[in-house]
Structure formats: C-alpha cells, structure tokens
Known about the structure:
Blueprint: E1 60-63, E2 72-81, E3 86-90, E4 94-95, E5 100-103, E6 112-120, E7 127-131, E8 158-162, H1 164-167, H2 171-183, E9 187-191, H3 192-200, H4 206-219, E10 227-231, E11 254-257, E12 261-264, E13 282-286, H5 294-306, E14 317-323, H6 326-339, E15 345-350, H7 363-372, E16 376-381, E17 383-384, E18 387-388, E19 394-395, H8 396-399, E20 409-413, H9 428-434, E21 442-446, H10 454-467, H11 474-488, H12 493-501, E22 502-506, E23 517-518, E24 520-523, E25 527-528, E26 533-539, E27 547-553, E28 558-560, E29 568-570, E30 577-580, E31 586-589, E32 599-608, E33 613-622, E34 626-633, E35 642-650, E36 655-664, E37 672-678, E38 685-688, E39 693-694, E40 699-709, E41 714-716, E42 720-724, E43 729-739, E44 742-751, E45 760-766, E46 769-776, E47 784-790, E48 796-804, E49 819-826, E50 828-831, E51 837-840, E52 846-850, E53 859-867, E54 878-879, E55 888-894, E56 910-915, H13 921-928, E57 932-938, E58 943-948, E59 950-952, E60 957-963, E61 967-973
Parallel strand pairs: 8-9, 8-10, 10-13, 14-15, 14-16, 16-20, 20-21, 23-33, 25-33
Antiparallel strand pairs: 1-7, 2-6, 3-4, 3-7, 5-6, 11-12, 17-18, 18-19, 21-22, 24-26, 26-31, 27-30, 27-32, 28-29, 32-33, 34-35, 35-38, 35-39, 36-37, 36-40, 37-38, 40-41, 40-42, 43-44, 44-47, 45-46, 45-48, 48-49, 50-53, 51-52, 52-56, 53-55, 54-61, 55-61, 56-60, 57-58, 57-61, 59-60
Amino acid sequence: YWYNQNEKIMTGTMSNDKLNNGNNQIYISLPGDTDASYDRILLDYININYWRKCIAHEDMLEFNKPTSYSPGLMQFEINEFTTSDIDVYKLGISKFENLSIESGLPEGGAPYVLTFQDQVLDNNTKYLAVSNSQKLVPKEVLPDYPSNIRTPGEQADYIVISKREFLEEDIFYDFAAHWYDEKGLVVKTVSTEAIYDEFNHGLRSDQAIKDFISYAYNNWQEPAPRYVLLLGDACYDERPISPSKKYSIVPSHMSWSYHVGATVDDNWFVSIVGDDELPDLAIGRIPIWETEQILPIFAKTIQYNTQPNFNDNWRNHLMLIAGGSGTFEDQSQRLNEKYIPKNYRVSRIYAQADHDDPYWGSTTNIKDYIDDGTALMQFMGHGGGQIWSDLNLMNLGDISTLFNDNYPIISSLTCYTSNFEYPGTSCLGEAFVLEAGKGAIGFFGGAGKGFLDQDEYLGAYFLQSIFTFGERNIATICNIAKTEYALKYPWDSAHLVFLRSFNYMGDPAIDIVLPTQELATTLDSYQLVKGDTVSIFIDNESSSLNRVSYYITDEEDLIRNPYKPDELIQVELNNIERKSYTPAGYNYIIDTLESAAEFTRIVRTYGYDSYSDYVGHTEFSVGKAAIFHMKPIPEIPAIGDSVYISAKVYNKAGIDSVKCVWWKSSSPQTQYSVLMQEDSGDTLGYKTIEPIGVFDTEKTIEYYIETHASDGEITQSEESSFEVSGPDIDVETFALDFSSTGISFDVGLFNVGKLSTPPTKIILLNGSTIIDSLTTPQLGSLEKRSVTFTCELAPAEYTLTVHANPDTSYLELSYYNNVFTKTFTLNTFTVPDNAALSHPSLDSNFVASFPSGTVSQDELFYINPSTLDTMTLLPDVEPITLLSEALMCYEITSFDSTCLTQDKKFKKDISLVFNYSRTDTATQNLAQQGNFKIYRWNDDLKCWFMIGGDTNLGDKNVSYSYISTPGLYGLFNN
C-alpha cells in the first residue's frame, strides 16, 4: 500500500500464456482507498522477462541460446523475415558468413527463414539478426580525444566539469592561475565528453559524472579534490530531439523531494562516501549555456577575490529580508540576535510590515542596499522560482536593473528559487549569479518546497557556521547547514528536501569576504547623560589604519532621522561617518531628544589598511550602568571545558558586586548564580570567580550579568546564550577490501560533532585481542576520512571490532557510535604455478579446482562468501539450499589481476563444485529432476546467467569444469 509520496517496486510471476503475440494491455487497479482528496499513481516502467519464439519482429531479433542448454555447437532458426537481405552479428565479436536464408513458402518469397550454426560457450554470447533496411545509421562520428582522468597519478584540488567547447576558452588559464595564486588550488578542467567516454561508453549520463567524481576522490593522488564546479546549465528535458537541447550542458540528477516530486539535485554528485546522502565535497553550478557567458562569470570571481573595495563599507554590511507574515519577521530577528555579532551592520527589509515601521521596505530599498554594497543577504518568506514574496518583492526583471559592483552571497530560504531545470534563466538564483558585472557571487536556495519552521533551523546552521565557527567557504557552509539539519532531524522529511533540492549556484571555491580581524574600539566614558560628548577611539595594534568609519544606533539598530527628528530609521550608507584615521579619536554628542531616562547606544566601527579590513563595536549607557561584551571563555565551549563568563562593566557610582546568573535552556526554572571579579588585564573587565560549570553533554546555556552599585542601584544586562558542543566521531563503515597487496580492512570515520577531534587512536580487535592500531590526524567538524588496517590473518571466520577513541582520551558528545563489530570470512590461498590445487570454502559448500599451469607463478587467490539476494533471481530460477543449509553464493578471483589474460580470464579453465543439502527433502527431490545449474552474476546487467553443470546424485553436488572467468557464482534450479 501507499501513504504519502512513495516509490514502490512490485515483482511477481504469471503464466507465459497470459501474454499475447503483439500488443498487450496492462491495467493498474487501486482496490483500497484513503481519506486523501485523491490518489494518483504514476507508472515509471514495466520489465517483463518471458520465453519467446525465435520470430523476427520488424525484420530484427536479438537473442542468445536457451539458458537451459549446455554450451556446445548449436543451430539457430529464425522465422518471419520479410526480406532475404539479412545479416547476423555475434555482438561485440564478429559478423557471420554463409548463412542459410530460404523462403518459407513453396512458391518462394516472404516470409524467410534464417538458419546458422555456432559454437556457443556461455549464456553471455548474444546475437543480432537484422535486415539491411533496419540497420541504424550513426547520426554523426566524433573524434575520441585521449583522456587521463582514469589515471591514479592525477591530482587536483578543484575540478571544473563542462563540455569540451567551453573548456577550450583561453580564460581557463587565467582562472586556474588565479585560484592557484589565491588559495594554492590546483585546478583541473574535465570535459563531459571525456567523462562519458571513460565512465559510460560515450553515452551522456549523470551517473557517469558521479562515478568520475567518486573515482577522482578515491583514486587520484592526495590531497583529494575539495571543490567541484559544474559549468553549464541543465534542463529536465534530456531528449536528444529536445528544443531545449542547447541548455543541457551538464546534466543534473533528478531526486524525489517532499510534495514536489522530481527536483534537480546537484548534492547527489558529491554524496560519494558511505551509504548516506550527505555531501562529501563542496559543489557549485554556474548555469551558463553560451561561450560568451564564461568570461564575465569568471571576471566576477576574480574581481570578488582581488578588489576588496574597502572604502565602500560593504564587507561589514548584512541584509535580512522577510517576505510574508510576521512569522518570517520574527524568525529573521531571532537569527539576527542569536548568531550575528554586533560588529556588523544589519539592514532589515520586512515586506509586509506597516509602512511607518522603520524596517518596512520594498523592491527599491532592496536594490538600493545591494547597490550600496552588502556582503550577505538572507531571505525568509513566501516565494516562487522567479520571485520573492507574494508582493513581488524581487523578480527576474529587477536584477538586470541593479548597479552594484560589490557582489553579495545570497541565502534564499523559500520555495523554488534555485530550480534551474528549465531552459535559460528560469529562477532567481540563475539571474543573480549570471548577471554580468553585477548581481550576486553565490546563491543558495531550494529547487523544491520550503518549510515554515525548518527553514529557520537551516538558516540558523548557515549563520552559525559563519559567525560562530568561522567557516568562510560558502559552498562548504551550505553543506554544513544541510548536514547539520540532517543529523539533528533525520526523521523529518525536510532533511531530504534540504539535502536533495537546496543547491548552491556559484563558484564553489569562493570564500565570503568579511572583515578579517577585530577592531579595538574604546570610549572615554561608558556611562553618560543626555547632551554629553563621548570620545570614540579606534585603533589597530598590528598595522596603521588608512580610513575608519563609525555610526551609533539604539539597541534596535535604529538612528534618528536627521530630517525628521521624531522618526527613527535604519542606517543608510550616507548616515555613516567616514573619516581619515586619527589616534585623537572622534566625538559624538549624546541624543537629547530621546525620551527614555535610561537607554543604551551601540557604537559600531570599521577600518582598513592597504591589505585588510577590521570591524568592532562597543556600547555606552545613559542613566544606568553599562554592561556589554558578554561572552563565555572559551568563546566556543566544548564538553569538558571549564566555562567562565566575562563581561565589561562600568558604573560611575562605583561597583560593589557583579554576578552572573545562568541556567540551562531546557530547565529555565533552575537558575544558578556565580560572583564575578575584576579582570586584572582589563580596566572594565569582570570574570566569574569560578567556572559556571563543566558540561559533559551538548546543551544551550543562557545567562545575564547583574551589577550592584555603591549607591544601591541594581542593573541587569540583556540575556545572552551560548552552546556547549564537542566532537563526535562515528565509525560509519567497516568493510573488507581485496587488493593486489592482500586483504585489508577499510574503516570510514565521520565527525558528526560541531568541533574538531584531536588526533584519534583507532584499534582493530579480534575479541578482546588488539590486532592492530593506528592514529589518525585531527578530524574537522562534519569531515569524513577513511583509514585502512592491513594485516595477515589465517583463513577462518572472524568477528572483528573497530573502536575509535577507545581510551576516551578526549570527551565526545556520544560514544555509542565509536564501535563497529562485524563478522568476516577470510579464505585466502596460494595457487602454485606447477601443480594442481583444490580449495574449499570454509563452510564446505563450494570447491574451486585449479589445473597446473593456471598461473605462471605462485599467486594469491580468495573465496569470498555472500548471502544470496533472492530478489536478483529471474522468475524461472530458484535458489538451492547448500550443504550448510544456507542460501549462499561465492566469489572466486585473484588478488593480482595481472595473472589473468588480457580479457580478464583464467589462463586455463578451472572447475567449480557446489555441494547441496544432504538433509533437505525438497532439495533432494529437485536434484532428481536434473535441472541444477551453476550461474555467474553479470554486474553490468544485474542478472544471473547460467554457465552449466552436471549433477552427481551420489555425492550430492553439481560440478562444472569450464569456468573461464573470475566472478560471483551460485547454484540454482532452472
């Protein structure tokens, strides 16, 4: 049954006589009903495997020998050709001569009967009989350019994937040189044509692109690729005859997402480690479709990195936009208060606020802020592919009217604004990124539906990654936000929507340009009265400042309108004082029009020298003590840390005492108080006399500072909060690997915590005995890494355990995921060059026999058992219970493939024996029928093919002496 949107794959059997020769009709019946308003079933495909006669259809037939026949000389007879002009091909090998083609009628003419003979070795041999009129003519013949992308010796930090025509442009030399100079990145361009040739037989395929990225990540030289740029648009219509074909440059992958269904999913390309859908590389797409678009797009990247334009005061300016109900305004404000430091100027546009609200704004206001310069924009609210907000707040046409030469990063937490599946510029993300010389440098948004509550959490992880944990690479920030949500809320369908449909458009190597250092900002007094003049001193110890700017706002980031003194407005660029630097400071007169007796003002500063920019802030109070710069020590507390609280405190009347009141956000009713004392290194600084706590689990702590003055006045600060987090190493995968050097165990590690791990000890145990150990370097937050244990173990079945951080040398959020236990069957053996050898599986179900001369020198082989997946069997094939009373199959191959022939076969045929159950009555009865056969798995076709076999009822086994190919073998009843 179905509930909500789900994919179902149904399998079953039916009698062959239910099928008609010619057309057949299939009906889908929905016998049940739900309380939904409607049921909708969309049929994707139907595969039917059936027996058919050797009759040509439209003068063509592809066929192979009946699987029930043993290999040998066979005669084929194909009927019902309408012409005698027929050829037969052994696919991939040869074309037949000397065919017998005769009329099926005494008087001659159609239909014709084709007859030929051939020595058939196995079921993999396929034939095609076809008339000349039915032969397809190649549409075009293209040159096959040599490629080295399958060479393990390659190395790149940054891979650009596009069609060959685009990659031949000269600008790529400048682009690669720029990134090498900027971040030391080795850039490699790879054409889609080369990828299709090397990974999909020349056929266009999104899977081929993913396979290439996975291959490069796992096989190229270290350091592995970090960034992938898909340079080219994509279109949902992938048909070769599509009128939109010119836009299908680099295909995307279509994944299911909640409510919408198929959505474009670039995340899929870089989800290559483990079985999860989490991204493992930073990926971006620049959806161009014409050669002329390349130069201006790359020019934006180079300008963004090399022209800081400090004097424009844009790198410390952020925008929060809410389109829709007041809910979105509340969400934006919560994110602002919790994650954005007070150093930054934050402009807010609330599209549906009252027009006299200072935060109300329209399209004109957004464009003005962008033109003046802003580093980061985040939109929350209703939206569509080509629009923000129900009020047409921003649409495609607006972007071309911008005049900005400083490019923002945009986070668009709404519906469809990154849905690039339609031809040309079809969504806001494409328009912002593709606009030459203006627009945005990067755009993060959804190709599917947004969510009211979950979008806020995604936005929180996005901002937290930047401002709390200091990540600057924007594509990585997008990955972190999606991954954090998926790990925190794995049961919520939104996590799959975020992973699959929230795409980043832009250069994935771009780091968001924010001021690099703190700017020292001090005052001559921090407690004043109305009309006082306060002196502001701006300094930078490490270098001389060229110019500085400053402005003073209330706690809501508002200033008094210089033209309407009774009105409060947001800070515009022209309200900011921009001065040449002087150590003498700058004066500001306290507002005398403020009606409140007590209030706080925030002083924000910005300065720059020839190379860097700096940002800072401080606060002063009128009519009350000043309490500001509250923070935990360390600033990013980890579990196990002794956490102190510090703050700056000033009161003209003198201070009797200062205390910190704190509580866990999960239990606000239980509050704790810790006294604070003066910090000897800071004239205004106070610090708790002891840690407020040592926390062993992840939690949010809230607190405020309270001062008691000499005159009895009590002042309480605003509430603040911080998160206690930590590393959390997860042993994600534990697998046996066979390579030319022998057996090894690959262990996949994943730090699912928010903080880096120290170097981590990993041990491999057999029971309680340590077999091997190693130490892996620091693992960053949400970073994955593979480590390998190489050890020699005698053939046997082992239950092995891998344990990360076994001595708990550092604290983690959780320890339950540090251990992975798995049972392995190890069965390696040496085949000599000058003698025959028979070797059994450990369970005695299977025996492989090698004649003398199978190898030229002693070679190491292995038998690897697998539990049989019965879903892979065709309807007319059933599994056989083996000697151990289990359904098993067995892989037999060499460690070193060079001991095989050029076409990857044994130098001499080997023999296989399967021992079937001695006790199972049903198996004994089936054996009497003589239909037990050995099959080999074809991984390309995902199907079992019969090889042959002779049943020995006395020994209760099936043997076959003409095994030419290494692979996976099973015993079935046909």
